[in-house]
Amino acid sequence: MITTTITLTAQFYDLDPMGVVWHGHYARFLEQARCALLDKIGYNYVEMQASGYVWPIVDMQIKYIRPIKFHQDFTVSATIVESANRLKISYEIKDTITGETLTKAHTTQVAVDATTHELCLESPTALTGKTGVA
Known about the structure:
By secondary structure, the protein is of the alpha+beta class. It has a single domain, classed as Hotdog Thioesterase (Thiol Ester Dehydrase, Chain A). It has helices at about 25-40, 45-50, 125-130, and strands at about 1-10, 55, 55-65, 75-80, 85-95, 100-110, 110-115. The radius of gyration is 16 Å and the shape is elongated. The protein starts with a strand and ends with a helix. The model has no long low-confidence stretch (mean pLDDT about 95).
């Protein structure tokens, strides 16, 4: 499996009135890890578009286990778990000091031909060649 991990720090502007990271900001954290993962395989959004495909997110699920608090350092790991027919990435957010799991999530993206706007039932070789899927 192809994986990458980034480290972030919760900022004041991330907090809600209860003093914890607002749930809507987690999508941004996942996006940052996803971009690092796609950079790692050489198929980020610029390369996707250049290959003739766009990859909209069609599903995102997040399980909040523990809150992230102000100035807390945390890691976001992103792992490609499927790429043959769709791009499914799983995520785990952990406290950098304790290693405690704070959040689990996954996103699913599908290939859409950028010219015809048709959904592709299989991932194009532009992706599968990068992930090693035959």
